[in-house]
Amino acid sequence: MRLPLVVGVDGSEHSLRAVDWAADEAALHGVPLRLVHASRWERYEGPALADEIGGPAGEVSGEDILRAAALRARRRRADLDVTTDVVPEEPEYVLLREGRRSSAVVVGTRGRGALAHALLGSVSLTVATRARCPVVVVRGPEGRAPGPGRDRVVVGVAEAPTAAVRFACEEAARRRVPLTAVRAWRRPSHDPLDHPLLTGDPEHMHAARAAAELEAALADAPPDLDLERRTAEGPPGQVLLDASKEAGLLVIGRRDPKHLGPHLGRVAHRVLQHGDCPVVVVPDA
Questions:
Q1: What pLDDT is stored for residue 115 in this prediction?
Q2: What is the per-residue pLDDT across 123-134, written as a single tens digit (0 to 9) for each?
Q3: Distance between the two ends of the chain, CA-based, in angstroms?
Q4: What whole-number distance in Å separates Cα of residue 109 and Cα of residue 88?
Q5: Which of 18, 97, 126, 275 is deepest in the core (most CB within 10 A)?
Q6: CB neighbours of 45 closer than 8 A, spacing ≥ 6?
Q7: Number of Cβ within a 10 Å radius of residue 63
């Protein structure tokens, strides 16, 4: 059974650009595309929706929104299997439930006005935090997979093999692009700054530890994968944001400690808010 790729569609230009991205992904993966609208979603129509329905973006129904999104997806990928559903519930509940029986959930950013490309809406943030499947937040200047010069997948790496690393390896192989695995490191502020001969070069030791952790995390990577290993000194969030500027897809993990439940750390939260390409949050199994 091919699990569908699910997209939350609210009528905003951001969600319609997410439909574009998801249509390409569904075709790449050979899976159906499922477009879902929660009827309690706050209305946020704009010029993109008006163009799709051939009229002013006033009070339109959920069926209108999904019909426009489905037409858009089929124009982009004519052979795509597209289904739609309007559900009379809160969008967070709808998308979290859909995530239990989908290959991934795709959402757009929901910022508005001058901060439209910076702020992440509450629905997208909740789904990225709690979904059981990978969640894609479609970011970037055009809200879709970037063009030439961004032909690689980037993954933020923890200390050991994770679901995020496995996901990133699979996506790079499927796209036939390089994978860049990034491990950030910081020198603790209490490290001595004396002469290296007296201190054992603490900066070198921290860099070497990060490189060893990176190797351990990539132990199961396919040997034929075009893989770049990169360690960088600096705050992990900033290191990943810098890497996102050259990526077509950025993959990060989400750990759910039993005593805390599902949550996003500061690094993931920052990347989701400000990443320069589509960001995938992959929960650890």
A1: 45
A2: 889 999 999 999
A3: 20
A4: 22
A5: 18
A6: 11, 12, 57, 58, 60, 65
A7: 12
